[in-house]
Amino acid sequence: MSDHNLLTLQGVHTHIGAYHILHGVDLAVPRGQLTMLLGRNGAGKTTTLRTIMGLWRASQGRITFNGQDITGLPTPQIADLGIAYVPENMGIFSDLTVKENMLLAARQARSAGQMNEERLAWIFKLFPAVEKFWSHPAGKLSGGQKQMLAVSRAIVEPRELLIVDEPSKGLAPAIINNMIDAFAQLKASGVTILLVEQNINFAKRLGDGVAVMDNGVVVHAGTMKALAEDEALQQSLLGLAL
Fold first, then answer.
1. Which among 93, 179, 89, 91 is positioned nearest to 136, based on CA atoms?
2. What is the pLDDT of residue 89?
3. Nearest 5°: CA angle at 9, between 68 and 71?
4. Coil, strand, or helix at residue 30?
5. Among the four given CATH numbers 3.30.450.40, 3.30.300.30, 3.40.50.300, 3.30.830.10, the one describing domain 5-82+159-238
6. Residue 214 pairs with which residues in a beta bridge?
7. N or C: which end of the chain has fewer CB within 10 A?
8. Least trusted range by pLDDT, from 33-42, 156-165, 228-237
9. How far apart are the C-alpha atoms of 119 and 239, rounded to whole Å?
């Protein structure tokens, strides 16, 4: 395996109970790039993310991160290697304040005072709402603000790979632009990113590489630019026009 790819999946199968969801997924996430994982609903995108994180076990195949086989590792160990995962439901604790949510994610810190100030300042620049609502209960935030908090929690400690499931879902266009900007800045800071997305405009503006899933396998992989310029291909892969 070349060092060029930070994460690779080779022939990954996943069964959930009696259901065979992933049927041999091959996926490469190049270091320092933003890779988009697209596909219709039910294509297996979320299952792929959960399998990478060890939340569901691959029944066959191999997952390699940074040269290490992580296929059988428990989720906390996978996270410790430098992978952050923001699931679609965001996993925010509604009753806790924004600050307490951040503190829970900062495993090195026992109090807000121990959190890395430089890093916090950088996060506040990316997502001003996180600073603005610092002492408010997270449950009071809007959908877009919760999404920003979820990403902020994922990056409160340095991570090599950020995996986010549908960051633009249900968000207003202005917030989506803010998100796009934040992901671009994260990528510029050296973070490798894998995003599952339904919003094609979002994908088009951010993606370096793209993989399209259908029925539990990757049916197309290439550059986002090439897919964005080929309407017939979009139509056949996604059933939609960009």
1. 93
2. 78
3. 50
4. strand
5. 3.40.50.300
6. 217
7. N
8. 228-237
9. 41
Provide the mean pLDDT of the chain: 92
H/E element holding 32?
Answer: none
For residue 159, give every residue at least 6 positions away whose Cβ sits within 8 Å of its Cβ, in sequence order, or none: 82, 83, 84, 191
Domain ranges of the chain: 5-82+159-238, 96-157
Give one DSSP letter per residue of 154-187, joined into a string: HTSS--SEEEEE-TTTT--HHHHHHHHHHHHHHH
Task: Kindly write down the DSSP assignment for every residue of 107-134, as one continuous string.
Answer: TT-SSGGGS-HHHHHHHHHH-HHHHHTT
Q: Report how far residue 81's alpha carbon sits from residue 79's, in angstroms, rounded to the nearest whole number.
A: 5
d(CA 187, CA 156) in angstroms, rounded, equals 15
Decide if pLDDT at 69 tops 90: yes
Q: Which two tokens stand for residue 176?
A: 């989506």
Q: Can you read off the two tokens belonging to residue 187?
A: 């990528």
Task: Give me the phi and psi of 99, to 5 degrees please.
Answer: -60, -45
Give the torsion through C-alpha atoms of 40, 46, 47, 49, to 10 deg.
130
* Residue 242 confidence class, pLDDT cut points 50, 70, 90: very low
Q: Which amino acid is at 44?
A: G
CA 166 to chain centre: 8
123 compared with 2, residue with greater pLDDT: 123
Is the per-residue pLDDT at 3 higher than 80? no
The tens digit of pLDDT for each residue in 148-200 reads 999 999 999 899 999 999 998 888 888 899 999 999 999 999 999 999 998 88
